[in-house]
Design a protein that fits this description.
Low-confidence stretches: none
Helix content: 25-40%
Structural class: alpha/beta
Number of domains: 2
CATH architecture of the largest domain: 3-Layer(aba) Sandwich
Order of helices and strands: HEEEHHEHEHHEEEHEHEHEHEEHH
CATH class of the largest domain: Alpha Beta
CATH topology of the largest domain: Rossmann fold
Largest sheet: 8 strands, mixed
Mean pLDDT: 86
Strand order of the largest sheet: 6-10-11-12-9-13-7-8
Distance between the termini: 31 Å
Strand content: 15-25%
Number of strands: 13
């Protein structure tokens, strides 16, 4: 990884750490050029003063300086005290009883790590309230430990360094969408989701259905089966479960691991779930185009007492049978009004007459798996 990739990784890990603790990821910021002379940290966490946090983000106000280089003593002093003047941001963090952490992509021995931390303490030697400032140095091994705390980030890192697991993807635009994950998930109030739990229930809007599925998957052991006709937007619906702009309390995208069985994932969904549980890794596994036999096996694994995994499987399946221990959600076709809204968003040059005509002939199918 280069400096920019490493900074992005630390930013995403900070977001994941906050979500894991039920805190807003909006408290994490990182921007600007990696080596700009603005005096600020590469990644900053700015939570409320009364917020309790610990672990890899040790204080509510924490700044991370991210460097690919080994950062020996002289570079640490130059970074923290350019021209032998302590950076204002470090003073500010001390005034807030915060933390300042240097992250390096290099590995260090115990002795070297101790020397790095000594250099950081030397850099704040003239700070009156230095005792209020937490200082630390994260090397490659420490960052790797942090990554392993968030299963989806493992896939992200492997993809970035060219060692992706075949057929497995972190949170991204799983369904074809020109705007990627930044694209808006369009909603209306029409019934889109039906469940098998209450035959008298008239059905749910998409946003209520999303909240219901999130509730099932939020804790380890949750199992959901999403079914529906081809083209109704099942994969896009699953992607929206992790989208903080849709509804409330979205699922943590850093926990998401996605595969389409048609892509021949290696390891298989069954093996991956077994490995995640064995390593005590919390994850939300998404298996698209999942046949009943794989669903049953993965479901059994996830519902075991020692499980750390929840799973949602997706399939073109409208049969009446209900897999044991699974809540089945059926996604119905979109309303014509929603299809018109989607078409207008993607093809703004079309007239309303054309939009209405296309929506009528679409049969409520809003997207397909291919461009």
């Amino acid at each position: 990884m280069n400096d920019t990739d490493l900074r992005t990784l630390i930013g995403l890990l900070c977001e994941a750490e906050l979500r894991k603790r039920g805190l807003s990821a909006s408290a994490v910021t990182w921007s600007g050029h990696q080596n700009s002379a603005d005096g600020g940290p590469d990644v900053r966490v700015a939570l409320g003063d009364g917020v309790t946090i610990a672990g890899f983000v040790p204080r509510p106000h924490t700044g991370f300086q991210v460097k690919k280089s080994p950062m020996p003593r002289n570079e640490i002093l130059d970074e923290m005290r350019p021209e032998d003047v302590l950076r204002p941001i470090i003073r500010d963090l001390a005034n807030r009883s915060g933390a300042y952490i240097i992250v390096s992509a290099e590995s260090t021995s115990e002795t070297t790590l101790r020397n790095r931390r000594d250099a950081m303490r030397e850099a704040v030697r003239d700070l009156p309230n230095a005792k209020d400032l937490a200082l630390d140095f994260y090397d490659r091994g420490r960052v790797a430990s942090w990554v392993r705390d968030h299963a989806g980030m493992v896939l992200w890192v492997r993809s970035e360094i060219g060692r992706a697991l075949p057929g497995w993807r972190p949170y991204e635009a799983w369904a074809y969408a020109p705007d990627g994950v930044s694209g808006e998930y369009l909603l209306d109030d029409a019934v889109r989701v039906r469940t098998d739990t209450d035959a008298t229930e008239p059905g749910l809007s998409a946003v209520v259905g999303i909240q219901r599925v999130r509730d099932r998957l939020r804790n380890a052991g949750g199992v959901v089966r999403l079914v529906g006709l081809s083209g109704v937007g099942k994969t896009r619906f699953v992607q929206a479960l992790f989208d903080g702009r849709v509804g409330e309390w979205s699922l943590d995208p850093a926990l998401a691991l996605y595969t389409d069985v048609a892509d021949g994932p290696d390891p298989s969904p069954i093996t991956l779930v077994q490995n995640l549980i064995a390593s005590r890794s919390r994850a939300i596994v998404v298996v698209d185009n999942c046949p009943p036999d794989i669903h049953r096996r993965v479901s059994d694994l996830c519902r075991a007492p020692e499980s750390t995994v929840s799973v949602i499987t997706v399939e073109y399946d409208i049969r009446e049978d209900q897999p044991e221990g699974t809540e089945v959600f059926e996604l119905e076709v979109s309303s014509e009004a929603l299809i018109e809204k989607l078409l207008k968003h993607r093809f703004p040059y079309l007239s309303w007459t054309d939009l209405h005509t296309i929506a009528q002939f679409s049969g409520g199918k809003r997207e397909s798996r291919s461009p």
